[in-house]
């Protein structure tokens, strides 16, 4: 490992007038392909490299650069950053909340050890680094309604613990080594053409697919479980805006962002306005329910709104309309 002194950092810097050269880790998860599409439009196809340890589907492979990268392999990561002259790193590899509880050792490796590799690579090569955090970085002793940026954070999941660790380590590297670390705490993200993998908020994606395909939905959270949520377009736009925000607008390095909050019952009701025959039943998953009961109900994001102009576009009715249009037209 090369990270031995402060002087070894910042050996490569990039001019702000150049297009960034972006690497996205965990690129085949819920958000990577959509983010790559957005960044490629802005910076050029070849300036955005998606990476993962899985084989990409052919439409992803043919839409722009894709590379194998294992964040647990430090040399492999460094080779990619050096050979491709990477200047921005978006670190999406992570195990989510529910799947993390089912495999704590793997979640610890990927979410904590993997992050250490990413931080060292980014600091060594003067990269701008984005790491998402989450509503899951809060816990039962945090204020839940609303949850501000700065408050008690004692999450009870390995996912939450690893995300608080990421927030603190990123901010530490920023203060200690000048790393340009940027972090947004995402709500549950709802997307039509990509699936979340093993989260607590997944029900809010599944309901749309089941409603369109079968007219029935079995929800694994109680009907009155309120959680903050966001449509994927808002999430990806927030990410790009925060990555591009001038340094002097950032009074903090980790921000809450929010769009809406709803319960399964409220979401089902909104979907039933379009699909009145939808039948919703409840079969509670105790692990997910306990996690959801410890998370924020409403997310306070005024710092993001004031500092760098964050503003969401999608509330619940627009979200439902957009999802149903998308999935409905796809299934025809
Ligand atoms: C999960 O449910 O684990 C994620 C999240 C809110 O971070 N979607």
Automatic annotation (TrEMBL):
Source species taxonomy: Eukaryota, Metazoa, Chordata, Craniata, Vertebrata
GO BP terms, alphabetized: L-threonine catabolic process
Function summary: Catalyzes the NAD(+)-dependent oxidation of L-threonine to 2-amino-3-ketobutyrate, mediating L-threonine catabolism.
Provenance organism: Coregonus suidteri
Sequence ranges assigned to domain NAD-dependent epimerase/dehydratase in this UniProt record: 22-257
Pathway this chain belongs to: Amino-acid degradation; L-threonine degradation via oxydo-reductase pathway; glycine from L-threonine: step 1/2
Protein's name according to its UniProt entry: L-threonine 3-dehydrogenase, mitochondrial
Family under the similarity heading: Belongs to the NAD(P)-dependent epimerase/dehydratase family.
Catalyses which reaction(s): L-threonine + NAD(+) = (2S)-2-amino-3-oxobutanoate + NADH + H(+)
GO MF, one example: L-threonine 3-dehydrogenase activity
Record-listed E.C. numbers: 1.1.1.103
Domain of life, per lineage: Eukaryota
